[in-house]
Amino acid sequence: MKAVAITQKLPLEDPSCFVTVDLPDPEPGPRDLLVRVKAIGINPVDYKQRKARGESDTAPRILGWDGSGIVEAVGSDVRMFRRGDEVYYSGDVTRPGSNAELQLVDERIAAKKPESLDFAAAAALPLTAVTAWECLFDRLGLIPGDLAQGKDKTLLILSGAGGVGSIGIQLAAVLTGFTVIATASRPETVEWCYKMGAHHVIDHSGDWPAELAKIGYPTVDYIACFADTTAHWKSMAQAIVPQGKITAIVESAEIPDIGLLKSKSVAFIWEFMFTRSMFQTPDIVAQHDILKEVAMLVDAGRIRSTMKVNGGVLSPETLATAHREQEGGKVIGKQVLEVAW
Fold it and tell me: Which among 145, 274, 295, 162 has a CA at the least distance from the CA of 225?
């Protein structure tokens, strides 16, 4: 099979940062799907994994943890899929990624893609949808479909126009009764957050607790931080209601002062989408269930794909461009690339 891989640690400006390689076709294990990849989504984890590569590593590594495609073969114990199924998934960070012609994916973290979406639009969803779902419903404890739970309560989503924020706003808006407040700092990102379903949007570039107070919310009941955890830590501690909950996805450059939450008895919970696959947790199939539910919501017209940019066909050049834009921190929604070998 062909793939776009990294074979050494090089800066993006180096034309050899990504290279096309020929590798043996992977053989599915008992629970694996062998997927012919049709499109990939780009996420910050891609460039973080690229930068984490060891200086002396020379073995080709395939990045990419969002994909959609067609099942080409199945392992001996696969029960939920068959050859020819169109699927989407967010993969496993401990295994080769989706920037390839073929990829192995555990059936328990994949689902049939939304029928109403093409492969490119579907590839924009898995990683961010699973992350947002786990943040809202597994970590914060909101109940999907219970509109009464959020009556007169608020959810703040920091960085609402990013990949996770874009789908997180939608899930909260359609599956809960919470007032959804998103943050954004540019006119185009503010507009995007409202398009996704936010009830209010405030600027996170300055004193955002003061911005909250201006719109009548001196505190919020729940916070989902999809931005720099350390940078927003003190503001989150100030804005969260006593006995509230905060979840975050961005690893801290320094250890946050957890003591700031003590007097309010606030719960703080990390979210890492790869936990279930990395540790093969007993509930790993929950990610299949999440993606199945998201597909149903898409096909029912209740939520939409967050694809904003289709960067063309996967190649070393288009992938380097996508990584560069991700590192710039200004991406709205999701970027995708199509796979055409």
Answer: 162
Q: Which two tokens stand for residue 145?
A: 């479909």
Beta bridge partners, 105, equal: 33
- State which H helix or E strand residue 182 sits in: strand 179-183
Q: List Cβ neighbours of 207 (8 Å cut-off, separation of 6 or more).
A: 235
Instruction: For residues 339 and 341, give the distance between their C-alpha atoms in angstroms, rounded to a whole number.
Output: 6
CA 155 vs. chain centroid, Å, equals: 19
Token pair listed for 76: 């001996």
- Output the DSSP codes for 105-129: EEGGGEEEPPTTS-HHHHHTSHHHH
> Sign (positive/negative) of CA torsion 125, 131, 132, 133?
positive
β 200-202/334-338 pair status: unpaired
Residue pair 123/117 in contact (Cβ under 8 Å)? The answer is no
Q: What is the pLDDT of residues 217-268, one digit of tens each?
A: 999 999 999 999 999 999 999 999 999 999 999 987 788 899 999 999 999 9
Identify the CA nearest to 3 among candidates 106, 103, 104: 103
* Cα–Cα distance list, 215 to 93, 200, 220 (Å): 40, 8, 12
- Between CA 164 and CA 152 the distance in angstroms is 24
Question: pTM of whole model > 0.90?
Answer: yes
End-to-end CA distance of the chain: 9
The number of angstroms, rounded, from the C-alpha of 252 to the middle of its chain's C-alpha atoms is: 18
Task: Go through the domains of the chain in sequence order and give each one's CATH number.
Answer: 2-125+278-338 (3.90.180.10), 129-270 (3.40.50.720)
Q: How far is CA 294 from the centre of its chain?
A: 13
Secondary structure of residue 246 in the 3-state scheme:
strand
Question: Do residues 199 and 154 make contact, with C-beta atoms less than 8 angstroms apart?
Answer: no
